[in-house]
Write a structure and sequence with these properties.
Pfam families: I-set (PF07679). InterPro entries: Ig-like_dom, Ig-like_dom_sf, Ig-like_fold, Ig_I-set. This is Ig-like domain-containing protein. By secondary structure, the chain is mainly β. The chain has three domains: 67 residues, N-terminal domain of TfIIb; 87 residues, Immunoglobulin-like, CATH 2.60.40.10; 126 residues, Immunoglobulin-like. It is 8% helix and 56% strand. It is built from two helices and 23 strands. The strands form five sheets. Strands 6, 8, 11, 12, 16, 18, 19, 22 and 23 form a nine-stranded mixed sheet that branches. The protein has a five-stranded mixed sheet with strand order 7-14-13-9-10, with no helix packed on it. Strand 1 and strand 2 form a beta hairpin. The N terminus is likely disordered.
Amino acid sequence: MEIIKNESQENKRTVYVNKPLGHSVILEKDATTSYSTNQEKVYYNNTGTVEETHVLESSGRSTNNFAEEHWSSEIKSFVTLQPPKFIQVIKAFRVLTTDTLTLIVEVESDPPAIFEWFCNDRPVQQNRRKLKACHGINITTLTVEGPEQGVYKCTARNPAGVSTTYGYVTVNAPPTYEQWSTQNKKGVEEMFNKAIDEQKIRVVSDIPPKFVQQIPNLTLRPGIEAVIDVEVKASPPAKFLWFVNGVEYRDTLGLGQTEIYYPMVNRCIARFLIPQTGEYKVIAENRAGKAESIGYVNIKQDFQI
């Protein structure tokens, strides 16, 4: 005998099987009833989901004197509350053709997101020699050796939808330090004064610094200098302060440690001739406010056996 019970208010269906096939008046006191159930129940607005479908199974037996029951539960399907939400996105960077760049993307997603990387609309799988993706739980990295200039894109997908982040990477040839050095002191002061005079004429309101080119995450071989090129939008022009692992670094031109260049107003290039592994931070500030950019440099150790 099989009885199907529909309870619409709970979206539950119960199937009873293994009912007694007969009835004995003599053994009524000792009669045993065995049964099993298979329930499907939908829960709405549960934590982290819009809808969850659970399969509940039970089995047991009972007499007039005792009852025994066993339950098990399994999530059959669920609908998440929202698509992945970005915690860390791709930003705009300016790097050298010889650099090894690492892009990092992190999201909030339940269940964990599935990532896919693109370079100029081409999947990174097409060039595994230069582009290497590594995925974790809700975090992914793309390491680029000898970066190609253009748009880098990362998509994060879960059952609720797809989220996308973009960033533009500008690739430069090695800078012309000699030309910059001649205008590094007096030339920079003249550019700042000229920009301020122009702003007075145009009566431009103060604008706090906002980074348009950030500090990248770089992997360098021992003996290779680190060149970090950043740029902001700001009015009046911003001044830049550099820090490595919390220690401020100033221009030491001629001492062979750190050199700071200003190719144009609101753009600054720091050249670390003997870079350290760790956190690199730059603060751009003017009278309207300040902003900071943080990146990481890793010195790759080459082991030879």
